[in-house]
Amino acid sequence: LIVIGVLKVVTVMYSTYFFWRNKGVPYLPNSLSSFITSWKLFFGRLSFADHFKFLYDYFPNAKYVGMMDFGTPVVLLRDPELIKDVTVKDFEHFMDHRSFVDEDLEPLFGKNVFALRGDRWKEMRNTLSPSFTASKMKLMFDLISKCSEDFVNYLVDHPEICHEIEIKGVFRRYTTDVIATAAFGISVNSMKDRENEFYMRGVETTKFFGGFLSLVKMIFMRVFPKLSKWMDLTFFPSATAKFFKTVVAETIKVREEQNIVRPDMIHLLMQARDKKSASTHQMTLEDIVSQAFIFFLAGFDTASTLMCFVVHELAVNKDIQDRLRQEVQKYFAEGNGKISYDSLSQMSYMDMVISEALRKYPPSIFIDRLCTKRYELPPSQPGGKNVIVEPNNMLLLSVYGLHRDPQYFPNPDKFDPERFSEENKDNIVPYSYLPFGHGPRKCIGNRFALMETKILIAHLLQKFTLKTTEKTVEPVVFNTKEFSLQPVGGFWVSLEK
Fold first, then answer.
1. CATH of the domain at 128
2. Residue 270 covered by a domain
3. pLDDT tens-digit profile of 231-286?
4. Helices (H), 197-237
5. Which residues bind heme per the record (predicted)?
6. What's the mean pLDDT in 441-467?
7. Same domain, 349 and 381
């Protein structure tokens, strides 16, 4: 196995060297240092964020860089204009994400709107889009606000846990409650019912996204899909798939029997299932379960992580926290102790703070696009040649690299909401800021994630002062065993009334 592994590595380096050199494209790994960096990532000595920042920074004057992903040519885009072309202008050439799971083997993940391709993706996107319009967000506002109020009031009533609190764990409980009510129509209070199955399944599911063995498993499933299928390898425990399938099936049954209509994702998917369509693929229960699951997974972990980084930066930067609290208190006073969807939408400094948190700590370190139609890229560097991207070649957009590039965001390690003020935001180079992606494949749930985050931050600042503790790590050091941005030691703050 060791010999096979070494031969594989040598083959990849050899093919990379000649494939990209012959095209006149700067390529990685092109040196011992870049090769060592890749192995540091694999063995957990370097975080994913730092690895992609290294790749992004290696050729600072190139529009893009060539790499190989287990023998598959990959182009890492660095130029915002090219990113605009790929994600918007010439989107029909790059409609899909690369699939790393067989939908028959893992329908819980493989059938969701993120993983689907081509016409099936278009159909599902069109089906789900009405769930996330501004009008639908307004209808869901009261449900989410109630979850936020209950959550913050629990903290107020239990000061013993607020002196020094690891907020990732408790924010996950809040996002569990939000997703349960907004997507499934089920009322859950995860602070009181601490081992409710929604929360426990979320914790169990996200274990996949951390650890060396998880990385090895993911790579194995990508490199050997047929063998993985033969071995019945899956990302998520079968009990998790069974739980979500049961919850969705029972929710649908109750709604049909009692003629319950709620303005949520499940209702729209039920309508799509019942509608006669010219499509060859008719909506099934598995399709509905898969959409509900990815919505839960994104809301449970990704949204809670954003909330944590916002609270961390507010605790570290007292002046920013004080200014945001003044804005929040103004709207609470105008609403007689309540905030509305409209008042939340008017909190301009809140928008600036959240936008800066998304810049400094983007939910996705990189974004991928799979070439579906032959495409010609301009030269990567002056004097170079145009490069043909063939179908099934992959493009990567280094979101973290762009967001930490001083060319686009001066002093990028500083948390500075003023970048997004009315006076300054027009200075941001278009397509250098990609917290949710761009174009038709942009994250469909971004409005929902922003709303649940803003509501929570508003209620927290109304009741508490956020402070650092001895366990707070600043500056943040990223955990090398996590795929997403997670700090070493967790998110520790003090909540003082």
1. 1.10.630.10
2. yes
3. 777 777 788 888 999 999 999 999 999 998 887 778 878 888 887 666 667 788 99
4. 197-206, 212-223, 225-230
5. 443
6. 97
7. no
Asked if residue 299 and residue 253 are part of one domain, the reply reads yes
CA–CA–CA angle 361, 459, 168 (5° rounding): 40
Q: Annotated binding residues for heme, as ranges?
A: 443
Radius of gyration of the chain (CA): 23
Q: Please, which pLDDT band fits residue 109 given cuts at 50, 70 and 90?
A: confident
Alpha carbon distances (Å) from 66 to 23, 304, 307, 386, 387: 10, 34, 35, 13, 10
Distance from C-alpha of 467 to C-alpha of 485, rounded to nearest angstrom: 22
Residue 492 within any structural domain of the chain: no
How big is the CA angle at 197 (ends 478 and 284), to the nearest 5 degrees? 95
pLDDT digits (tens, 9 = 90+) for 41-70: 666 678 889 988 988 999 999 999 998 776
* Parent domain of 188: 99-356+447-458
* Closest alpha carbon to 84 in 427, 433, 435: 433
Same domain for 428 and 347, yes or no, is: no
Same-domain pairing of 155 and 88: no
Within 13 Å, how many C-alpha atoms sit on residue 269's CB side?
26
Tell whether 26 and 123 lie within a shared domain.
no
Q: Is there a single domain that holds both residue 193 and residue 127?
A: yes
Binding-site residue numbers are: 443
